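Fig. S4 source data, part A: sequence.
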Amino acid sequence: LGWKFYDADDYHPPENRKKMAEGIPLNDEDRIPWLCALHDILRREYTSKQDVVLACSALKKMYRRVLISGASAIESNQPEQQGENPALKILFAHLDGPRDIIAGRLEKRRGHFMPPELLKSQFDTLEPPTAPENFITVSLEKSLPEIVLEIESAIL
């Protein structure tokens, strides 16, 4: 696509990385400042008219609202925001698949701060996107080229 790419894991503060490395799941209080920082990146790129791809485990509906509208989404509980900072238009690609496939991929990952043991907590936290959220669901049982093509087709 020629778009900028951001990996949300690169923006976790040291406290979050340490917690996950110790096998302790993150909670909302850990994640909200991180998601607000990611929103700020997306807002900056939007203002610069730069399209981006953000790889992010936005597990809950509230987390996705924060990515769209920033901290104001927490207080208002609404994704839409009026005024000088309207809500960002984001297409969420929900990568869905059996736990064993995801666990196998995590086991192969080297040098990452999140151990595979935290996968259960990720599934426990997960609120799959639903209407009216702007999303597509893509099966992880497909090949990587098929996954990429499906996401590209939805974007374009």
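Fig. S4 source data, part B ends here. The chain has one domain: 4-154.
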